[in-house]
Amino acid sequence: MDDTTRQRREATIHAAAYALLAQHGYGGTSMLRIARAAQASNETLYRWYGDKDGLFTAMARENAADTRRLLENALECHDDPWEALAAVAPTFLRMILGDRAILLNRAAAADPTGALGAAISAGGREEIRPLICRLMERLCTGSHHDPNQVTGWFLGVLLGDLQVRRIIHDQPALSEQEIVLRCNGTLATLRRLTTEACASSGP
Q1: How many CB atoms lie within 10 A of CB 8?
Q2: Is 3-50 a CATH 1.10.472.10 domain?
Q3: Mean pLDDT of 155-178
Q4: What keywords are annotated for this sequence in UniProt (predicted)?
Q5: Rounded to an integer, what distance in angstroms lies between the CA atom of residue 194 and that of residue 140?
């Protein structure tokens, strides 16, 4: 099977898994059900993903692929960190507040085993946050800032409680204009925070 064919098959499998997750939750979404819905063999799913947790980790990783790609390219090409953040922020915000991420997190909140939450974290947060922190290391070069703290500022201001509110149906999806305004405001706030922190640590 060539790469293009596999990518198409994986997209079909992931779409089937999301649909079943919405209907039955994590506990009721079995590998066999997913295989049948995707018109794939159960053996193929286990061969490609190992188990259900592996499948959902792959789904979370695929959902974060554009954000991860932007961060990796910025780090590899030594892009200006502020310009890189300006490019990454809207893609990241669309992803983290998008329907697929929200569906995964709603199901994880209802999963008493914690398995889905761990899979989401492994495929998303545990890969994306370290890349953002590496970008912040570059932004903090020559200053006394802690890159981990600055990463926390960035994520806290950008996301706030928006994802939680989306998960509990208290916040509609953001419009493109709202995303742009939120990202611009976040970068302006981050510049102010880093400038004020630098001034307060001076002689």
Answers
A1: 11
A2: no
A3: 96
A4: DNA-binding, Plasmid
A5: 9
